[in-house]
């Protein structure tokens, strides 16, 4: 190999090395021992939207608005050459000129050099703003989920402890509890499936479907998007009405029918959802002598769960229920 | 005869409030509320002073702290039924050293803790 070949080789290696450095999207700097910028790659200029003139020849700690001028970072970078130390992933959150608030991880180490006695420092920056943001969102979601799970267990516990036991066999108690448990599970599934709203018609269909299509008539009102806290109370109210119909009402006799309709009406200028349940062709109906947990559950679900009202009328032709709930 | 102690219940989840109320009534207490949010609880406190209170911490996103502060100022003992753990409550001086029985509790334990609070223990 003659000198000319060697020169060509070195030159092509240099061009290749420069090409690699400039291809990297991650910003990087090479500093001298005093912290002055010797070189910056294209990634650095593009990420921080600065020019070569604002960068090369200046101290790292004087760049931009002095975002890197942090006493601890200064100390760490200062130890790299004399102590062969390294900085790995030092996090800096700062307001940068033109690009705004960012979270950057700074890594620095002595630049590897064939003479093995390099006094240059390579600085790498990693923009983790988006990653940190999505981590924060995940943390919030996790906290909400945890809260929701604990609430859900409390709700299930409440239903288990309040489902009537008096004058019932263990099997009757179990069926009554599991029915309510199922209503909670279905409401939860619906509330989780949609981002934060659930459709009333889905909920109604879900509650009545097991009775068989010939046993009910739904006359749907306008589409109603239920807010997440409204789903469980409505699901429980429908469950209690359906259960009652199986035990004493329209579903307990062949030919018995449930009519369900809903509408949105204005009350004091605010929209109110009205759900009407009407049974017909069932056995003769008389008001219960004792109010069990079921009717209490309907009432509290409407009043406290929906901030609305529940009215049950035991008419001779069949039970009528009128539920109202403010919606917006 | 001794009057039954009055317990203010603050809980946003009505089904849980319902069970708390039933548990307290069965144990011979009178229940004030349940109040589902801070403003309803403060309203109830204006009308009467309970002998003790049971508070959930997160009321549909709002913290119960203002209620706890009023209770402290009028020397009404209270306990928490919150899903939060101690670390979550550290930042709130009105809540941090209060006994928390958690979101699901054994009735006997809740009633014992409440009894202790009423006795000033």
UniProtKB/TrEMBL annotation, chain A:
InterPro entries: HATPase_C_sf, PAS, PAS-like_dom_sf, PAS_fold, Sig_transdc_His_kinase_HWE. PANTHER family: ETHYLENE RESPONSE SENSOR PROTEIN, TWO-COMPONENT SYSTEM SENSOR PROTEIN. It is an enzyme of class 2 (transferase). Its EC number is 2.7.13.3. Gene3D superfamilies: Histidine kinase-like ATPase, C-terminal domain, PAS domain. The keyword Cell cycle does not apply. It comes from Bradyrhizobium nanningense. It catalyses: ATP + protein L-histidine = ADP + protein N-phospho-L-histidine. GO terms for biological process: regulation of DNA-templated transcription. PROSITE patterns: PAS. The keyword ATP-binding applies. Keywords: ATP-binding, Kinase, Nucleotide-binding, Phosphoprotein, Transferase. One of its GO terms (molecular function) is protein histidine kinase activity. This is Blue-light-activated histidine kinase. It comes from the Bacteria. Residues 20-61 form the PAS domain.
Automatic annotation (TrEMBL), chain B:
Residues 6-118 form the Response regulatory domain. Pfam families: Response_reg (PF00072). One of its GO terms (biological process) is phosphorelay signal transduction system. Keywords: Phosphoprotein. It comes from the Bacteria. Transmembrane segments: none annotated. The modification 4-aspartylphosphate is found at residue 56. SUPFAM superfamilies: CheY-like. This is Chemotaxis protein CheY. The lineage of its organism: Bacteria, Pseudomonadati, Pseudomonadota, Alphaproteobacteria, Hyphomicrobiales.
């Amino acid at each position: 190999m003659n000198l000319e070949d060697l020169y060509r080789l070195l030159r092509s290696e240099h061009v290749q090395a420069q090409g690699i450095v400039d291809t990297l999207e991650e910003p990087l700097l090479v500093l001298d021992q005093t912290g002055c910028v010797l070189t910056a790659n294209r990634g650095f200029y593009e990420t921080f939207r600065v020019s070569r003139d604002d960068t090369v020849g200046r101290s790292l700690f004087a760049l931009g608005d002095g975002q890197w001028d942090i006493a601890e970072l200064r100390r760490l970078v200062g130890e790299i050459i004399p102590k062969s130390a390294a900085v790995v992933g030092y996090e800096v959150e700062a307001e940068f000129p033109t690009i705004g608030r960012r979270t950057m991880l700074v890594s620095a180490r002595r630049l590897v050099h064939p003479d093995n006695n390099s006094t240059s420092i390579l600085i790498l920056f990693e923009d983790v703003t988006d990653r940190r943001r999505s981590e924060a969102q995940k943390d919030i979601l996790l906290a909400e989920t945890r809260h929701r799970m604990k609430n859900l267990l409390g709700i299930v516990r409440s239903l288990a402890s309040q489902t009537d036991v008096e004058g019932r066999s263990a099997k009757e108690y179990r069926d009554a509890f599991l029915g309510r448990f199922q209503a909670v599970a279905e409401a939860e599934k619906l509330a989780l499936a949609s981002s934060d709203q659930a459709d009333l018609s889905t909920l109604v269909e879900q509650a009545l479907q097991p009775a068989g299509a010939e046993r009910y008539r739904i006359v749907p009102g306008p589409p109603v998007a239920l807010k997440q806290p409204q789903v469980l109370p409505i699901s429980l109210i429908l469950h209690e009405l359906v259960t009652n119909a199986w035990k004493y009402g329209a579903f307990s006799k062949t030919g018995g029918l449930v009519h369900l309709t809903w509408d949105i009406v204005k009350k004091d200028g605010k929209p109110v959802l009205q759900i009407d349940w009407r049974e017909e062709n069932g056995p003769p109906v008389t008001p219960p002598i004792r109010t069990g947990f079921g009717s209490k559950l309907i009432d509290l679900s409407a009043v406290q769960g929906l901030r609305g009202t529940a009215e049950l009328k035991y008419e001779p032709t069949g039970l009528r229920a009128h539920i109202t709930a403010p919606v917006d | 005869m001794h009057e039954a102690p009055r317990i203010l219940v603050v809980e946003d989840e009505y089904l849980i409030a319902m069970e708390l109320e039933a548990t307290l009534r069965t144990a011979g207490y009178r229940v004030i509320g349940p109040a589902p949010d801070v403003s309803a609880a403060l309203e109830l406190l204006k009308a009467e002073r309970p002998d003790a209170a049971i508070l959930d911490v997160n009321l549909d996103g709002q913290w119960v702290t203002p209620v706890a502060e009023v209770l402290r100022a009028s020397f009404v003992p209270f306990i928490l039924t919150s899903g939060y753990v101690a670390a979550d409550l550290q930042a709130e001086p009105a809540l941090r050293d209060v006994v928390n029985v958690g979101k699901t509790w054994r009735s006997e334990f809740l009633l014992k803790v409440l009894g202790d609070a009423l006795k000033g223990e």
